[in-house]
TrEMBL record:
Binding site for a divalent metal cation 2: 111, 174, 207, 239
EC numbers: 3.4.11.18
Catalyzed reactions: Release of N-terminal amino acids, preferentially methionine, from peptides and arylamides
Subunit structure: Monomer.
Function of the protein: Removes the N-terminal methionine from nascent proteins. The N-terminal methionine is often cleaved when the second residue in the primary sequence is small and uncharged (Met-Ala-, Cys, Gly, Pro, Ser, Thr, or Val). Requires deformylation of the N(alpha)-formylated initiator methionine before it can be hydrolyzed.
Protein name: Methionine aminopeptidase
One protein family per Pfam: Peptidase_M24
Residues annotated for substrate binding in this entry: 83, 181
SUPFAM superfamilies noted in UniProt: Creatinase/aminopeptidase (SSF55920)
Molecular function in Gene Ontology: initiator methionyl aminopeptidase activity
Length: 255
């Protein structure tokens, strides 16, 4: 079931989105060679605490996961695509980091992700990150009243495939509102004109994930959470929570 949000609800979701944006900014500012992933998680926790917000990530335990998620951010480094668990690993110069964060504020969720390089960037990583951001922008541009979910999926997939990157099958965006994951699902590849029709008041988390090596193959690491590229190539992830409105798409997780 898809909940259509009122304008008042969209305004409340914008506030939770701002918290997410500030948390991501804090993580990015803290990230540097030698910094442990747990320190980045702590930086995000401080932002959530100061805002009086909860975390939809912390202790989240879907059926497929062996244990509840133990942090407020997913930190996926280099060949990790998504769902990386923050641990004592210290960042190295040139690492590609994808950070996914959520917040719960006054009963409404926000969800966003960003990828960046720590220290000196490899040119191929810069291109990979830029492609993820371009794919996200294309998906957002297609998120207009009267379009369909397939139009968003097609826009994302066209950018990813056009740049020669892989798309991990089975992972994509989702509806969001009172909980982090709601209907409908938003694939990162699909046929235009197919799927649910977009209406004013729908809110979607749109999140392209790209595999640098060009294949779609991935596997789940021993921790039961982290999804890694099978070929060992690097990955990037970009995400925003987006409201569908009569005035066009409204990004709720922008700073």
């Amino acid at each position: 079931m898809v909940e259509i949000k009122t304008n008042e609800s969209l305004a409340a979701m914008r506030e939770s989105g701002r918290v997410v944006a500030r948390a991501l900014a804090a993580v990015r500012e803290k990230a540097a060679p030698g910094v442990a992933l747990t320190e980045l998680d702590r930086a995000a926790r401080e932002v959530l605490t100061e805002a009086g917000a909860g975390s939809p990530f912390l202790d989240y335990h879907p059926d497929w996961a062996p244990v509840p998620f133990p942090a407020v951010v997913c930190l996926s480094v280099n060949d990790a695509i998504v769902h990386g668990i923050p641990d004592g690993t210290r960042l190295a110069d040139g690492d590609l980091v994808s950070v996914d964060c959520g917040a719960l504020l006054d009963g409404w969720a926000g969800d966003s992700a960003v990828s960046f390089t720590v220290g000196r960037a490899r040119p191929e990583d810069t291109r990979l990150i830029a492609a993820a951001e371009e794919a996200l922008a294309a998906g957002i541009a297609a998120a207009v009243v009267g379009n369909r979910i397939g139009d968003i999926a097609h826009a994302i997939g066209r950018v990813c495939r056009g740049a020669g990157y892989g798309i991990p099958d089975g992972f994509g965006g989702h509806g969001i509102g009172r909980t982090m994951h709601e209907d409908p699902g938003v694939p990162n590849e699909g046929r235009p004109g197919r799927g649910m029709k977009l209406r004013h008041g729908m809110v979607l988390a749109i999140e392209p994930m790209l595999i640098g090596g060009g294949t779609d193959d991935h596997y789940t690491a021993r921790d039961g959470w982290t999804i890694r590229t099978l070929d060992g190539s690097r990955a990037s992830h970009a995400e925003h929570t987006v409201a569908i409105t009569d005035d066009g798409p409204r990004v709720l997780t922008a700073l």
